[in-house]
Automatic annotation (TrEMBL), chains A, B:
It comes from Sphaeramia orbicularis. Residues 40-261, 374-610 form the Ion transport domain. It holds the Pfam family Ion_trans. Residues 711-752 are annotated as: Disordered. Keywords: Membrane, Transmembrane, Transmembrane helix. InterPro entries: Ion_trans_dom, TPC1_animal, Volt_channel_dom_sf. This is Ion transport domain-containing protein. GO terms for cellular component: endosome membrane; lysosomal membrane. The chain crosses the membrane at residues 39-63, 69-89, 161-182, 194-213, 233-256, 378-398, 410-428, 503-527. GO terms for molecular function: monoatomic ion channel activity; voltage-gated channel activity. The keyword Magnesium does not apply. It is found in: Membrane. It is a multi-pass membrane protein. It comes from the Eukaryota.
């Protein structure tokens, strides 16, 4: 019986750590515990962020943040040393053999060594050389525990690459065929425009045409000579853009489904296997069929050190559906479904102000009824709608003499007062807890508070905060609450937000790598009036032009889209992501460097395309998965009834095993609540929000049974063997774990 | 027992005609048969096409096709009279009451009346007035039987509209908010550029920004003043383009899934109900539990008049899986799965040249082995690859003095000879039937034949056919056969082709309607050097411009994107579909007409967006449905074994019931084949390609059982009642159907 090892198995199951990284000796255990806590994770994250931030200060730096070579190279070395320290800790935990086998860690080590050497070279030479390897820095960030979602995202992108690349080749093949056709045809018919004069230009024109960025323009010279020449372009676009691009999306969609299913399967079976391992460790030889509350409690004190005794008890009750004195393995398989629950007694009273004196109660009750009435809600919608129309009219009639700093319209104050009163009424009527538990209320609240802050900023004339005032039309978003569909869609989106954030982070990591490469090669190559030899010279021109008899300053702003520092690079890359007119940037840079620069831009386009399709497919699939549920299905709820006797019994048990005050008080709270309500039992509700795993469970219901059957067929002989081993041989692998410290209240961290 | 009525029920089930349109009296039956044959369908199609084609000749006409008002108005009246005639036929069949209730037909009638009035007005006034109603002409085409797929497509688009519009409103809402922000902010900071100077311009700029068509340009003036102003645009695009647009796709995807499932369910149950009706009519009172071969044969002679007696017999055998003397209802439910099968005796010999003399046989056998060998295949791939490289090099070194008409390179002839020999070898080795049954071989064959035709064209100096020569790089597409994935993907695409064609047709119908509206309002409004007051004047300018000291002719070609005739309109609309730079056309037209013109272009953008998303989702879903099958699963195969006795028995039966020579000869063929092969039984294979219905059947396997259960719960009491009615009351509704004409060989058409 070893609670700590069981807890570690369960942790590994949760984090999807493979079991061959399971600590095998006391040193490894210490290292495991050291490397698995939030402090360490946070250090990893901060080191990763620091390394990435450094590119703000390294040449070519953002002007206001420029640091001396000396300073930033030292900072870099410091961060690298920290990474090295983290890696050493990992080495201690994994052992040399496992460490070598772990691909991601090995890549990280190599990159680390490279960066070390380069940082030292920079320090010695006192100047930065071409450091393209900085593009690899995001590896340090991605590897840290908190970026697991980004890592999964990246893995998914790489997994869907092979079929994607196949179809991409088909796309390129048609491009080459049409380039050959284009060159022959246009050559033949003497439309000798620069779009198709050489094979390279043909290919580039058709690549840009694929992105539609040069569309009618590339066709126009030929179209003006012969109307039927549009057929060439229409056929090309129909095949490439509307057929093969859709095919690409279809292939990504197809692969995504498969990959998702396989991933879910392996996660599910890994968790099951972790539970099996933990269960084997928990059951004692006297009682081989089950886990008692005492054992479960011991486990949970390692697995979730911060969980209160009451919650541990309730979790046990939630698992124990059969009511038997022990948890069977079948019960225990639901472990991961119940550990995340937040427990709460089902309210005996209806309102938060039930305990107040009678008169106050009546007042609050009145406010509550008012706030909950349809009339109040619709009155508020009307106010918001009027406000919307008001803002529109105001903006429409806004004249040039107007400035926010001099004049606050009275309507602004009136509406703000109404919103303020509404927020106060709702908070008092519903109670702060109920009020803030709704996302919509939180939104209302923050918009109103921001508007007030804006007003204060205006009153005290704090110029930089004016933008807050401008945000007031956001109030209008509340109107979308009226319709059920919007509520569903927006709630779903809210649930999907973490996932979308990880998609965004993945994008930023791609941006970072491309920005570094761009800065190393293209920093400072474009400037006003450059690129005069290219076809896009106009967009970079800053010159006086004469139209007939009128002279104007024609300003082509594209020289602003440069790679002069990391922030500009990000903006430039965003513009490339949006695709429109991206070829102007490409041609500008190409004309000032070499033809090979196009490779950079084309690669970036393709990478963005993969990622964009990936996220489209991802969002669509998730949406279909999450959306069809009715609003009350938004969470998973477990119900547990606790009787007075049970509570007393448990209290006794805890008094024996862990007599610490804090643990007992939470259980005594249960008894007090029973006394107050006068009932002999109390119902607790455990609540958590739906996860993708819950929905996938429902979706693959049948397959899961097959997987489990398959899994147990493969694994059944092994436990038997190991049991025999345990019985026969006197402990061949001495466990690194200390004997269970039943009386200690500390979690895994305490060992250090 | 009434074979014809049963056949009509089955037809209605197949065509998804509702049963309330079932002909109730002899006159209706005659009308039904008149309106349900290919001649009538073809007439409908041609009338629809003629009406649509008319817009080529009506003012503003394509110059070379211009017709006199007199002529085209008369043609139109003629076509409309034909439509009216078709409608009268339908009225006769449906009866006035049902006719009124049928929505689509009513709409068609109203449009017809309107068009009649207008055509007459045109004839009287001798000049065309503003005839926007011509945009409704596609209704006549869409309503015809052959355009069923387009109709379903349109219905699907309309069904997915409500949720789409909801999200679109969210999109527009954010657009308004950002327009207000943009106007206030830019006003405030004095970036008084024309993009945001009024609320209308703000909105238009942001709408165009949503399509990304003006992207970096709209940001540049502000960005050059303050680098942080890019945040406004990045936030806007992130919300609108990357969030809400993806949400739109997700919603379309979600709706699509639901709509597809519901459609499949209703079709399936409708078919089942049709089979129930037909079965009730077929079973006789003596034998209430089954359908004999004689009855089935009588049914099939009405349902598929052109099917041979052998195939009717084989179809019966395929249905009759239990081997009982009668078909039970359960057997009969598979009716629609087996009626489309093509029957073919399983080849006793292996090669098509088995019957030839021995020496010839050996030669052919040699060719067969050669053609099937891996070595031959890879040799051909190598030839194709060399040809590809050759063409690339040739095109690369192509100089301006070269012209196809003067000089045919020897390499062209060499490669063409190799391909020609390959085609001949394959045809002789595999046999023409086996060769042409593969899509890839067909492709090879046609490309090679086209290349030969091109060569002949060159030899005889036929200038307009040179383009054929240019198509030769298409041969390279064969290289994609090497990899399994490409074969799968391209085969799937080939299977999906009809569906994609119907998507394309839907697009053309949208184009047509928009083209008519465009021509009525915008014909002739843009011309060179127009639009000088707009922001896009440059794109329409045809003028000498002085850059410093150099004067060049700057040609803005956008005046070519006009609505001057239907062909130009189609090209312009295609450019608008591609989206890039679409606002130049919009602003040009707007500056020459009124601000309301923007509505036309924006509506077109949104319509195209819906359709594009629809087809993306459609293709992805279909692809996932069709693709995962292995290549040998590409078709549905039924196997039926016919013994000598059975064949003789059936022949006897047919001699009694339909002694026509043609019907007997097909059965005698079976006996002859048995004699030749010397076996006492012969196996026939029935083959058809997979349809979506087969795959959906597999996909919704479980739901289908539920649906059937639900269906029979609802419908079981009714058949009982009707049976009782039949037994008790002496025929309350006299059937319009004549007694079964067992001896006639004619199908439903013969009645007229």
């Amino acid at each position: 019986m070893n609670y700590q090892e069981a807890a570690i198995y369960l942790q590994e199951g949760e984090n999807n750590d493979k079991f061959f990284t399971h600590p095998r000796n006391p040193k490894a255990l210490a290292a495991y515990l050291f490397a698995h806590n939030h402090l360490f994770y946070m250090m990893e994250l901060l080191t990763g962020l620091l390394l990435m931030m450094l590119s703000l200060c390294e040449a070519p730096a953002v002007p206001s943040l420029r640091l001396d070579v000396y300073v930033h190279a030292t900072l870099e070395l410091l961060a690298l040393v920290m990474v090295a320290f983290e890696l050493c800790m990992k080495l201690r935990w994994l052992g040399f053999h496992t460490f070598i086998r772990h691909k991601r860690t090995m890549v990280k080590t190599c990159v680390l060594l490279l960066q070390f050497v380069e940082a030292i070279v920079v320090l010695i030479r006192q100047t930065s050389h071409v450091r393209v390897t900085r593009a690899l820095r995001p590896i340090f960030l991605v590897d840290c525990r908190y970026c697991g979602a980004v890592r999964r995202n990246l893995r998914q992108i790489f997994q869907s690459l092979p079929p994607f690349i196949d179809i991409l080749l088909l796309l390129l093949f048609f491009m080459v065929i049409f380039a050959i056709l284009g060159k022959s045809y246009y050559f033949n018919l003497q439309y000798n425009k620069s779009y198709f004069n050489t094979l390279e230009n043909s290919l580039v024109s058709l690549f840009v045409l694929l992105t539609t960025a040069n569309f009618p323009d590339v066709m126009m010279p030929a179209y003006s000579k012969n109307r039927w020449s549009c057929v060439f372009f229409i056929v090309y676009l129909s095949i490439e853009l509307y057929f093969i691009m859709n095919l690409l999306l279809a292939v990504v969609f197809d692969t995504f489904n498969d990959v998702e299913k396989m991933k879910f399967k392996s996660l599910l079976l890994h968790k099951r296997s972790a539970i099996d391992h933990a269960f084997q460790l928990l059951v004692s030889r006297q009682r081989p069929m089950g886990v008692s509350l005492k054992q479960f409690d011991g486990l949970m004190r390692f697995y979730r050190p911060r969980m209160s005794a009451r919650d541990r008890f309730l979790t046990y009750k939630a698992l124990n559906t059969s009511g038997a004195p022990m948890l069977s393995l079948e019960d225990f398989y639901k472990f991961y479904e119940v550990t995340g629950l937040k427990w709460k007694a089902r309210r005996s009273g209806e309102y938060w102000f039930d305990d107040l004196p009678h008169t106050t109660f009546l007042i609050f009750k009145g406010i509550n009824l008012l706030v909950k009435s349809k009339a109040f809600q619709y009155a508020m919608y009307v106010v918001v709608a009027i406000n919307g129309v008001w803002i529109l009219v105001e903006t429409y009639t806004l004249n040039s003499g107007f400035s926010w700093s001099r004049f606050v319209p009275w309507s602004y104050i009136v509406f703000l007062t109404i919103y303020g009163v509404e927020v106060l009424l709702k908070i008092t009527g519903l109670g702060p807890v109920a009020y803030f538990s709704s996302g919509w209320n939180l939104f209302d609240f923050s918009v109103t508070v921001f508007a007030f802050l804006g007003l204060i900023a205006l009153a005290f004339d704090m110029e930089p905060f004016y933008f807050i005032v401008v945000l007031r039309p956001l109030q209008l978003l509340r109107l979308f609450k009226i319709k059920q569909r919007y509520r569903n869609v927006l709630d779903t989106m809210f649930e999907l937000f973490p996932r979308m954030a990880s998609l965004g982070l993945t994008l930023i990591i791609f941006y970072y790598s491309f920005a570094i490469v761009g800065m190393e090669f293209f920093a400072g190559v474009v400037y006003p009036n450059c690129c005069n030899t290219s076809t896009v010279a106009d967009s970079y021109r800053l010159i006086n032009i004469t139209y007939g008899n009128k002279t104007v300053l024609e300003e082509g702003y594209y020289y602003l889209n440069n790679f002069n520092n990391i922030l500009s690079s990000f903006v430039t890359l965003f513009e490339l992501t949006v695709v429109n007119n991206w070829y102007i940037t490409m041609e500008g840079v190409t004309s000032m460097t070499s033809h090979w620069s196009r490779l950079y831009f084309m690669t970036f386009y393709i990478v963005t395309m993969v990622r964009h399709m990936q996220s489209q497919v991802f969002l669509s699939c998730m949406f279909v998965l999450f959306c069809p549920c009715s609003p009350d299905e938004n969470g998973i709820v477990f119900e547990v009834e606790v009787s007075r006797d049970e509570a007393l019994e448990t209290l006794e048990l805890y008094k024996q095993t862990c007599p610490g005050q804090s643990s007992l008080s939470s259980l005594q709270g249960v008894l007090q609540a029973m006394d107050r309500s006068g009932h002999s039992s109390l119902v607790y509700l455990g609540h958590r929000s739906r996860t993708k795993s819950d929905l996938s469970m429902k979706m693959y219901e049948e397959e899961i049974q097959e997987w489990y059957a398959e899994y147990s067929r493969e694994n059944l002989p092994q436990p038997d063997q190991s049991q025999e081993q345990e019985l026969d041989s006197p402990d061949p692998n001495p466990s690194p774990f200390p004997e269970p410290q039943l009386n200690s209240q500390t979690g895994p961290h305490s060992i250090n």
